Each structure stands twice: as structure tokens, then as C-alpha cells.
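Quick one, T. Sequence first:
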Amino acid sequence: MNITLNPYSISGIILVVTCSILVLLIIIYGKTKAHRLWALFNVSVGIWGVGTILTGQAGTETIAFIGWRCGFAGVIFIPILFYHVVSSFCQLERRKVISFAYLQGFLFFFLNTTDSFVKDLRFIFDSIYYPIANQPFFVSFVIIWVILVLWGHIELFRFCKKAKGNKRNQGLYLFLAMAIGFSGGSMNFLPMFGIDLYPWGNFAISIYVAIATYAMLRHSLMDIEVIIKKTLVYSGLISIITIIYIIVIYLLERFFCIAIGYKSVTLTIAIIALFAIMFIPLKNKIQYALDKYFFKGTIDQIEREKELLGTELERSERLKSVAALAAGMAHEIKNPLTSIKTFIEYLDDKDNDPEFRKKFKSIVPKEIDKITSIINQLLGYSRAEKIKTEKRDMHLILDYVLDLYNSTLISKKIKLHKEYNSSNSVIMCDDNQIKQVFINIVLNCVEAMQKGGNLTVKTQDVNNELEISVHDDGAGIPKDKIKHIFDPFYTTKEKGTGLGLFVVHQIIDNNDGKIAIDSDLNRGTVVKVRFTLSSS
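C-alpha cells:
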């Protein structure tokens, strides 16, 4: 008997492909026990799809038995895993029911390998060897199967009535997808009990997969966050459309061959050409629908929105910086102004007091210098001068800074160690700004080593970047304070303004670099700065 590809086996092919995609997404992005259960549920559905392919293509009863037993191996666990997934999703305590479900599942799984489960087949629809439900164990299996499926849907329905927000949306999508899938899948049982309706419902199981996948991508079904690119969606979409087109063309070719009895190569080519012409418009229509309803805009629109959002975010960050600077400036300037004001108020009364005049001459200039220092650093940050980037040798910049403070290092009993391990040290930068950066870093290291110590400056190549690390073995910084180290006016020093490292961070950022600080109390601090290497 000649058995050809029929709708039943085609439904199995589609089911295997769609289930494989869904399982892959769950494995990649799922993290919890509930996610693993859902992955196993879809694996069981996919196993049923494999069985459908085998039985739909079986040319003998022996092969058909293999196909049905393969398919039933998945079908047996589908309602069990479904109920388990629902219990986990709805956070229900159903251990006894779940334990019983798995126990009977393994029993039927064993019976599926014997004639006690399915013994006889009959050839129906002129294409499929179908099981006959004349065994008590099989009938019992179907009854329990239906009860578990209905019970799971009832539990899910109750959950949806009580849940709110996105969790309710997830529950509704899961209920809808499962209801469609099980409604279609249960039609496979009808011919087994003598009701000869072609099992077209097998296609509905793939609709479940489509809805579940959409809900996962769009509404984080089962709390799975999937980050995908539009190009990936379009590639998958085109692949699915192509597969469907190939199947449709094949079926039409077989239909004309059987119904009309033609064997014309020209007509076959014409049919293929017709569908090829229709392919592009259909693809564009579906892509437009995806853009409008799934991604909420075309690629160009989303890119423009991304640019606007980036500009808005940058503006917001600048406003936050200005607010922090204003607040810090008010706080830092207030104290010296208070001191100056106090002295001025007593100036008339104590003008002839030598002690007062001595304090006045000592304290007021220092307070004014402090205000001047803060304003100069703020001006340095706020100045909108365009940086002049040129090719510069980082080793020469480091040597300049270290030579500048060589006498200071000697007087502070600090030993300098230079380890230039980078063969190429040329970067694009503003020479003066980068000198300012490392002057600030070296001064911080010197201040941290009040009792002397070792200062190590090291360079090395890291992934086409030049990494400069400056390591001191001074007092160190507490871990909880490192995250604030680049904030304006934040300082761990008694007399610091808290603007030095803030300005350093801004300069490095303007020169397309990166900076990171790691430190431990009483073990020292390591400052790492990276720039992209340039050809020398």
C-alpha cells in the first residue's frame, strides 16, 4: 500500500518544529523549576508530534505500532506535566494529586510497551493505521487524561479570576493557549472510539505553541524575560513561511496529480512561480503587522525613538549632575562664608585686638582660597571647550607626570615602580586633559600613603585596549564608599572638596576611556584606566 505525506503527518512536522523553538527559548531564558517543568511539557508535546509523523507515514501495522507507542509516550505525560505546571504557576499545594498523577503516568508508560495498552489497529481515512480503544487499561488512561486536563483548566480559571495586572494577563494567555491545544489534541481520541472524524485538531496544538510563544515574548509568560532582536523574529518568520509554502506547493502538486492525473513539469513550475510571486507581498504584510502590533513601530520609527530617548536620558543625567553640583557647591561654600561673615561682624569691635587680627589674617584668606578652588574646579567641569584629540604616547605622558612629582615621592618616602608591559602605548586623547587625570590620581595616592610605601604604575594590552593601573599600598577605601567615589562633592578626606575624581571621570569619559577603582582597607587602592589603542 502506497502511503504519501498526508495532513496528519504534516501537522506532526509543524508541531515538532514549533515545539522545538519554544523549548529552546525556555531552556535559554528559563531559570526556575516551573520553567523546567514547562520545558518538559513541551518536550512531551513534541514527542507526540514525532509519533504523529511516524503513524501518518506508516505503510505497515508494525511501523504504525512503533509510531503510536512513541506518540503515546509523550501523550501519557502531557496532562500530568500540564497540571504540575499550572500548580506551580498558580502557587498551589497539590503534592498528593501530583504524586498520584506521576505514579499512574509511569504505570501507563510501562503498559504502553505491551499489548495491554493498545492491541489492535484499523486502516482509516485511506491513509492512517489507527488504534482501537478496546483495552481496559487504555480506556482508564483516557478517563484520567481528561480529568487531569479539565482539573488543570479549572484551577487556571480560578487563578485568573483572582489575579491582577500582568500576572492575570499571563494566566489568561496560558488558559487560552492550553484550551485551544487540548481541544484540538483531544480530537485524536475520537477515531479510537469509532467516531471517524479526521483529526484535523492536531493542527490546533501548534496554535497553542504560537500563542504561548507570543505571550512569553510579549507578556513574559511564566515570568520568562526574553530579549530578542527584530532581525531574529523576521528570520524565524521567513523560515516558517517558507516551510509552509513548500508544504502547500507539495500538497497542491499531489492533489492535481491524483485528481487530474497530470504529469506536467510546466504546470508544476507555474504553480511554484505563482506562489513565489505571492511570497514577498505576504511576507511584507506579516512584517507590517509585527511592527505595528508586536514591536509598536517600524524599524526606522524605533531607531528614531531610541535616539530621542538617548538624548532625553543624556539631558536628564546632565540635569541630575547640575543639581548635585549646585547642592554640593551650596554646602561647601556655606561654611567658609560663615567663617568670613563672623570675622567681619567682629571687625569693628576687635580691630585693635592683635590676637583677633592674627586669626583674621590666617583664617579668612584660607577660606577665600577654598571658595576659589571650588569655583575653579566647577569652571573646569562646566567649560564647554572642544577637546583636541591627537595621537599621544601614554608612556611619555606617564613619565611627565611621575617626573613632575619625583621629589614629592622621595620626600614622602614613597618608592616608585614602573612596569611598562605594553608594546604599543599610542592612544587618541587630549594631552593636557590626560595629564590632569594622572596628576590627580598620583596626588591621591601620595595623600593615601602618609607613612610612605610603594607606588606601582603598570601598563598592558587588554583586548586591543591600553590598561594603565596605578597601585598604592596606602590606607585604602571602605567597600561601601567606593560606589560613591565619582559623585561630586563626595570625599573620604578631611580637607577634600570631592570634585577631583568627579572631574577625572568626566575627562576620561570625554576621551572615550573607562576608569574603575578597587580598594581594601589597609591594603591599598588600584585605579585602572583604559583607552582604545591606536596604530603607532
